[in-house]
Write a structure and sequence with these properties.
Shape: globular
Order of helices and strands: HHHEEEEEEEEEEEEEEEEEEEEEHE
Number of helices: 4
Helix content: under 10%
Oligomer: single chain
Largest sheet: 18 strands, antiparallel, barrel
Structural class: mainly beta
Distance between the termini: 36 Å
Length: 481
Amino acid sequence: MTLRRCGGALALVVSSAAGAQALTAADAAPASAASGSAPASVCDAKRPAINFNRWNENWGVLADPCLARQPLDGLKYIPLSDDGVSYLSLGAGLRERYEHIDAPLYGAGTTPSDGYVIQRTNLHADLRLGPYVQLFGQLVDARTFGKKTIAPPDRDKLDVEQLFMTVAVPTADGAVKVRVGRQEMAFDLQRFIAVRDGPNVRQAFDGVWADWEHGPWRLIGYVTQPVQNRSVDSFDDYSNGHLTLNGLRLEYQGIGPGDLSGYYSRYRRDSARFLDATGDERRNVWDMRYNGKSGAVDFDIEGMRQTGQVGAKQVSAWALGSIAGYTFAKTEWTPRVGLQFDMASGDRHAGDGELGTFNPMFANGYYFALAGLTGYSNLIHLKPSVTVKPAKTLSVTTALGMQWRQTTADAVYVQSMAGVPRTAGQGSRWTGAYGQLRVDWAVTANVAAAVEAVHFHAGDTLRNAGGRDADYLGVELKFGW
């Protein structure tokens, strides 16, 4: 299939981490219409929360007259049919973040200390045609103010972020869904296939997605071309056959205390460059994940194996990610004690016929920390943390991360698979340690604020390469309507 640029092609999102749900008649119908009974004295209809995926919000509940109206609700729900099931909903979002980092690449590169503001503005329209059809379009304008070094995820002039159609037909014990167009795509905790919400420009895909749901089973297929943004002109983002991600995913809910999922993907990238290999990259990706909760304990473990070729070299890479925690639900501030452990392979022997550097593909921009000083390649990472909730709308997390290299033959990597100069084949495994403090505040139903601070203490390997300690500060304000 040839997919054309700027939304002329097809895209997919399956985001179980964001709670993707079936588009069914029950979703679209207002509460009083679905029940067929007179409105109760107590209104059961609830306003939708602002969702990570805005297309997942159901504003059809505003058809219920018992729900109290707020300003501009006439634009959140514009009925197009007598039964209220068909409607148009408009929305917007704004994210402002100030960031300062004094030592990008731990100070071992040429990128200078930087302090700047990044801004992301979104406008969207959600059209529901009956109970089974959805048309969703979203524009993005992402800008930087005062940033010295601009990378592709930093800036995108006015462009199509999402544009897709979904047809979802309920069955006796599930649903059949097909989604075509440009849309974001995320799996699980977004370790390796992510929306990339941390940076300024989120990752979208042009492709086709379909799934079949039956009881605890879900089978998903996807054929995609990741969108690449240029930000030279407006509406110039594109995708092509030089970068593709296709695959199949199978999920089963309710195995013991958790859910099991696995997928196979074929990742293709032309003209790839690694420290020890160049050429067309063709990776077979095998992934398995088990996650759930038992009492006060929550857990998530995921493993990935990669084979294939980069140029003339054979790929043999792997990664493991895990997070577990215990929540003291009856204790004041409901503290949660967590432990995160991650590993990813590096290239053990430069100059041989094998490439062992793990490629995280479309990694989460904030899985480790917003500072961007930790990449998911050639890594051993251990991170205990404590999270408390002094108030219902306030969350405070403190953590200590410790990092090693999986092999000293390969480099220390930061996000976007950038290797720190003069570290490959040099020094010890120990990379360093960092302290992290993050505060999240849900100011209102529409406004959220966050502050994150990170201090990274560099080990001798980084210092001998010209690096030093690094500090990061991020202050963020988000508005959704």
